[in-house]
Design goal:
The chain is of the alpha/beta class. It is built from 14 helices and twelve strands. β1, α1 and β2 form a beta-alpha-beta unit. The chain is globular, with a radius of gyration of 21 Å.
Length: 383
């Protein structure tokens, strides 16, 4: 009789739910399941909070499941915290959720001759698609994606040349990583302020309240207002900055055809949290030429989206990223460019999800990018 394959899975597995069970049962179909869980300190480092359930209790509960053969607590730290366990177990298959799939994980498996499988979240029967976030609270506070022009919301950039920042407000369809350029820090402040959803009212005024709440008097590094605006304002928005913290003009698009078009062509690949060893505001080269290049790229991006010109959108999207890193070289460290190389033949344009480096590689493509995340833009009537 053929020996069952060893199937390795990793994760936090905090607040056990039906999504965890579906994932583990899928893994069991492939062989004997070895579940490797993040240690409490690493979860805190990555997510900014300790798990609700301590590591020993998480291990105990997983060991009680018939789908699981063995459970280990990872000894490592960082997004790839399981290398020691992987080398000890020597699995035949490594299974990840679609929102946890990264080129780095695929490369690790290739180096070790391990099959790399990606599980697409499909709820069992009539059960909802679950994540730990949905169990903590049914939080409807959006995230935001910075499409182009990021950094122009900072006066020390737009004072050199005015220009727009483009964002889309997106539904919390997955648990986007902290420190990943999705405005997760501002979103936490929004949750602290409003709990589970944005209240009714004038959206720009609500965004000002959130911006002020996040940046009280005495704040040294002021978070740009595009974060608060990008969360509160539904649809696609263009904020025009002229050397101040708040935009002088806001243009909004709620057209269903345009928003659906963006959703069809925008893809995210997980890179992991920002590299904390890089100080983004060091080694900058901010001047009029750089700010103008960023402003021009954002304007071209806006025009391309309104025209639904995918090639122009990709080119302007890429130009915005290049203008950013020309002024802020520490945004993109060598590993980022290695990941970009993997997608150059699949995407028309790419940039990082935020101005701080790391997070997600956001790409524009005519055709679907395998195993990438697609977003859901928040519509006007959902507020």
């Amino acid at each position: 009789m053929e020996k069952p394959k060893k199937v390795m899975v990793t994760g936090c597995f905090d607040l056990m739910h039906s999504g965890h069970v579906a994932f583990l049962k899928e893994a069991q179909k492939l062989g004997n399941v070895y579940a490797c869980i993040g240690n409490d300190e690493n979860v805190y480092q990555l997510k900014g909070r300790y798990p609700i359930t301590p590591q020993d209790e998480r291990k105990y509960m997983l060991e009680a499941l018939s789908a699981v053969t063995e459970v280990r607590v990872n000894k490592g730290m960082g997004i790839i915290d399981y290398l020691a366990e992987m080398d000890e177990i020597q699995p035949d298959i490594f299974l990840v959720n679609e929102d946890g799939a990264t080129p780095q994980k695929a490369a690790i498996c290739k180096e070790r001759g391990i099959e790399y499988h990606i599980f697409h979240r499909v709820p069992h029967g009539n059960l909802p698609t679950r994540s730990t976030t949905s169990l903590r609270t049914e939080c409807l506070i959006p995230f935001r994606v910075d499409l182009a022009g990021g950094w122009l919301d900072q006066p020390f950039v737009s004072k050199h040349h005015p220009g727009p920042v483009l964002t889309v407000s997106i539904e919390p369809t997955i648990e986007f990583n902290n420190r990943s350029g999705m405005s997760s820090s501002t979103r936490k402040k929004a949750i602290e302020l409003w709990k589970t959803e944005i209240p009714q009212g004038d959206r720009e005024k609500l965004a000002k309240i959130l911006f002020t709440f996040e940046n009280p008097p005495g704040t040294v590094e002021v978070a740009g207002s595009q974060d608060a605006l990008g969360i509160v304002m539904p649809g696609l928005n263009k904020y025009h900055y002229e050397g101040g913290y708040w935009p002088t003009k806001i243009d909004s698009v709620y057209d269903e055809e345009i928003l659906s078009w963006i959703e069809q062509h925008l893809f995210l690949v997980t890179l992991g949290p920002r590299n904390s060893s890089y100080a983004v505001l060091d080694n900058t080269h901010i001047d009029e030429a750089g700010a103008k290049a960023l402003a021009d790229a954002a304007t071209n991006c806006w025009n391309a989206i309104l025209a639904k010109d995918i090639k122009a959108f990709g080119a302007a999207f890429k130009a915005s990223f290049e203008a950013q890193i020309a002024m802020f070289p520490n945004m993109a460290y060598p590993e980022i460019f290695e990941q970009i190389e993997l997608y150059k033949d699949k995407a028309l344009g790419w940039k990082l999800s935020g101005a701080g480096g790391g997070g997600y590689l956001t790409m524009i493509s005519e055709t679907p990018i395998p195993d990438a995340i697609q977003i859901k833009i928040r519509r006007k009537d959902t507020v």
